[in-house]
């Protein structure tokens, strides 16, 4: 817990600011994405690489915060290793962390991979495994600004428990996370005396200034998993966990992704704004004027809405690029997940 407090202390003082794709797909007036990875099915000029600086987020670019994400790019280099999901970026946005399940036998997640690029305007190189546990499925890895710890959700194969939120650590000299993971205690993971979880806890996302951890939990659920947040509290770790009530009305919500300034949140839901329900999971966005206030002005990102479940993973510090993963039926018993970026016109 002391290491946990130290990590969040670093988060408070450091602001947080994936990918060679064949071709971008233009949505919102362009070709509708079918959720696949075949670049030939996406619109665009075949002479323009999908993972060029123009489509994968430039450092220092600006865009209209209210504008739609108009260019969708499959991140083929990262998708090549298997069913990929949960992409999160480092503080300088030059390293992508995500999980891949080569066997597609337990939903999204498995090993944690990392892929580097020279700058936020450069394509990612081939990814490498940085954490592997044969008995565990890992998902939603969130790297701390110092790069020495990852928060993630862990599901133990064959166990009735989980998922639970854990933390991995590494020395600065080692790119791999080889130390045993540490399961977070209460109030993040609430367990009985035997260590059995009362609820599933997953999809952790740390706000850039370290003042909040957002995650999804089944505790107290009425309609399904809901979004919660916890505040760090010095050496004590975390204070009490609170339901983000305004995001969980009518339907459950998952995949919370918060902007660097804490004023915008992206999340996934099957809701409709009139209280109804949709077949597919779609991406929603809500905003607030105060980093500690309630979110409002909720709307669906229609430009990302397709006939496949879509989940947000990371928003760039300049708010111009959203990274997400999308489910694709693979013709078998499971679902393949693929990573994408969506950009706004500068």
Supply the key terms.
21 strands, about 350 residues, 2 helices, disordered N terminus, 4-stranded antiparallel sheet, 5-stranded antiparallel sheet, mainly beta
Task: Tell me what you see in this structure.
With 346 residues, the chain is mainly beta. It is 5% helix and 38% strand. It is built from two helices and 21 strands. A hairpin with a 5-residue loop joins β7 and β8. The chain is globular. The N terminus is likely disordered.
What order do the helices and strands come in, and which of them pair?
Layout (H helix, E strand, L loop, with lengths): L1 H12 L11 E2 L44 E4 L1 H4 L3 E7 L5 E7 L9 E6 L11 E4 L4 E8 L5 E8 L7 E6 L12 E2 L17 E6 L6 E5 L8 E7 L5 E6 L10 E5 L5 E8 L5 E11 L8 E5 L9 E6 L5 E9 L5 E9 L3
Antiparallel strand pairs: 1-2, 2-21, 3-4, 4-5, 5-6, 7-8, 8-9, 9-10, 11-12, 12-13, 13-14, 15-16, 16-17, 17-18, 19-20, 20-21
Task: Give a short summary of the structure.
The chain is mainly β. It has 2 helices and 21 strands.
